[in-house]
Specification:
By secondary structure, this protein is of the alpha+beta class. The protein has one domain: Outer membrane efflux proteins (OEP). The protein is built from eleven helices and eight strands. The strands form three sheets. Strands 2-5-7-8 form a four-stranded antiparallel beta sheet. Strands 1-6 form a two-stranded parallel ribbon. A two-stranded antiparallel ribbon has the order 3-4. Helix 3 runs antiparallel to helix 4 and helix 4 runs antiparallel to helix 8. The longest helix is centred in the N-terminal third of the chain and has 68 residues.
């Protein structure tokens, strides 16, 4: 009996351990930990827009094969049964030809080739290349968006942490001030001024936390993570702020061919050129060929006459002669569209080069502002801490505490914006240069 009890206890223990492990796994699955690289990789794999752009590449491939199929042989088979209900063909006084029921089988193979069809297949190939570039551009945009959100979340979390720490300090000063009022050595208005500052800090913290939640929701949307999942960022702002890399971008050459926007503009120009050629082939001939086999079986022994040849081949060369100006008008319109696209391509070149210069200027200015605001927060924090200590010993007024706290909140807000501007400027320049996070171009990786 004792052995049985021990066995039951051991079994229950195993069940409990197994249940605990399962519950732990389920709890862990609701929390997702990401480094910056892991977050971007996860988004590239799960983002809905990227999945759709990938399908667009496959659609372009299907369209191209559809265009090729129009030049390949097309084969059709037919089965036929006819019954003339005893009718005979009367050829006069001397003869009548029976029309017995019959069945026939036929196979028809045909194909046609024209210059327009060949150009269409070339356009299909170009469409695949354009869809592929668009897909890679979408990948770049999603990755950079996740990167910006990752930085934004880290900056916001740092801000919330600083505000909470300062709130603790101000609450401590308020308690000290209220005790002084209760002891009759200070006025109530001094304690009230600091209490207002406590409320201001609490409001700032609530606002920052709501903003942080919005950032995480945007990240969930980009990464296609369920809203019931918690995202935990495993890297800090100091880990990711690579100042040296960002400043190196200022000295990188701008290679137009690496830029996705320029690649699309170049391919669009080639597309318009091929469409012009396609319109020109409206004047070209079309060669068609066919082969036809027909086998007929009569379901009667009566004499009849079979005039259907079993085999037949044919060739047709179709040459357009007059279209009332329709083909000419289409060709002229295609030429004008191509010329417009050439102008657009030149404008794109100029715009991208100007944008490169502007983004370099933006990055330099954003870096300078960021460095200034980092120092500003440090100084404002030091001043606030100093005023707090002085207030404890009666060497500063409540107004001094309020002003120092307000200055610190302003400095922190300005720092947040400066940090985001700096990261955004870096990302925009990397995007123009087609550089990933580690400074290698996508083109080089391929």
């Amino acid at each position: 009996m004792r052995k049985l009890s021990r066995a039951m206890a051991a079994a229950l223990c195993c069940v409990f351990v197994s249940w605990s492990a399962t519950a732990q796994e389920e709890g862990d699955s609701a929390v997702l930990h990401f480094t910056l690289e892991e977050a971007m990789s996860y988004a590239l794999e799960h983002n809905w827009d990227l999945q759709n752009s990938s399908l667009a590449v496959r659609q372009a491939e299907a369209d191209r094969w559809g265009a090729i199929a129009t030049m390949l042989p097309q084969v059709n088979g037919t089965l036929d049964y006819s019954n003339y209900m005893g009718y005979e063909m009367d050829l006069g006084e001397f003869m009548a030809i029976a029309m017995p029921p019959y069945g026939s089988i036929g196979v028809n193979a045909s194909m046609s080739v024209s210059g327009a069809q060949i150009i269409s297949t070339l356009i299909g190939k170009l469409s695949i290349e354009m869809a592929d570039v668009s897909h890679r551009q979408s990948q770049q945009e999603v990755a950079e968006q996740v990167r910006l959100l990752y930085f934004s979340a880290l900056v916001s979390e740092q801000t919330v942490e600083l505000l909470r720490r300062n709130l603790g300090t101000v609450r401590k000063l308020h308690e000290l001030s209220q005790k002084s009022v209760d002891a009759g050595v200070a006025e109530q208005v001094d304690a009230d001024q600091i209490l207002v500052q406590v409320a201001t800090l609490e409001s700032s913290i609530n606002e920052a936390e709501r903003g942080l939640e919005m950032i995480y929701n945007s990240m969930r949307l980009q990464m296609n993570v369920g809203f019931d999942k918690e995202i935990v960022l495993t890297q800090t702002l100091d880990d990711l702020m690579d100042v040296e890399h960002s400043l190196d971008l200022l000295y990188d050459d701008f290679i137009l061919e690496n830029n996705f926007s320029y690649q699309l503009a170049l391919q669009s120009t080639e597309l318009y050129r091929k469409q012009k050629n396609l319109a020109g082939w409206a004047y070209g001939p079309t060669l068609s060929a066919f082969y036809q086999y027909t086998g007929r079986k009569y379901f009667s022994d009566e004499m009849t006459m079979n005039m259907t040849p079993p085999n037949m081949i044919g060739l047709t060369l179709s040459i357009p002669i007059f279209s009332s100006g329709r083909n000419y008008t289409s060709f002229q319109k295609a030429k004008l569209d191509y010329q417009k696209q050439l102008n657009t391509l030149e404008n794109t070149k100029m715009a991208l080069n100007i944008q490169h210069r502007q983004l370099k200027y933006n990055l330099s200015s954003a870096y300078e502002r960021y460095q200034t605001q980092v120092k500003n927060v440090e100084v404002s924090q030091a001043v606030f801490d100093n005023i707090g200590k002085k207030y404890e010993f009666g060497h500063a007024s409540s107004l001094d505490v309020t002003n120092a706290a307000t200055t610190l909140i302003t400095a922190q807000s300005t720092y947040v914006q400066a940090a985001l501007d700096y990261v955004t400027a870096q990302i925009e320049l990397e995007k123009l240069l087609n550089k990933n996070t580690y400074g290698q171009s996508t083109q080089e990786q391929k």
